[in-house]
Design goal:
By secondary structure, this protein is mainly alpha-helical. The protein has one domain. It contains four helices and two strands, in the order αβααβα. Strands 1-2 form a two-stranded antiparallel ribbon. Helix 1 packs across helix 2. The chain is globular, with a radius of gyration of 16 Å. The mean pLDDT is about 90.
Length: about 130
């Protein structure tokens, strides 16, 4: 059982690591070494756990307050985008080994937000305000 959990975490980490590596290479982001990128991804995932908890709590509120699905999608996208951008901005300001421009930070946040929304489960009909997704 523990093997499967560790394998799942390793798989997610490898996806994020090579995703960031390719994205940063395409946009000419400067980083001192692959270990610096390794630390960036580790910290991104750890801080992302807190960000995901915040997103889930606010989404419960969004599902209750906003009745129109288009506005729910748009507000959820903005929420995920803002949290991801804050995580990347925090890591950029705390790590001297990676230099990311503001445009690249925002573009990475947009891409991550679209990917997260694309892979989420669809909303159930009926009592959607009681679900955490």
């Amino acid at each position: 059982m523990i093997f499967f959990v560790l394998f799942a975490f390793a798989f997610v980490f490898v996806l994020y690591y090579f995703g960031f590596l390719g994205f940063f290479k395409l946009l000419h982001v400067q980083f001192d070494s692959l270990f610096a990128l390794f630390l960036f991804v580790i910290w991104y995932l750890l801080i992302g756990i807190i960000g995901d908890l915040i997103i889930k709590l606010v989404r419960r509120y969004i599902n209750v307050v906003i009745p129109v699905n288009v506005w729910k999608f748009f507000s959820t996208f903005l929420l995920i985008y803002f949290i991801n951008w804050m995580i990347i901005l925090l890591l950029y300001n705390s790590m001297e080994s990676i230099k990311i421009s503001g445009f690249t930070q925002m573009l990475a946040s947009v891409i991550i937000s679209f990917v997260e929304l694309a892979f989420e489960k669809p909303e159930k009909k009926g009592n959607s305000h009681t679900d955490l997704y």
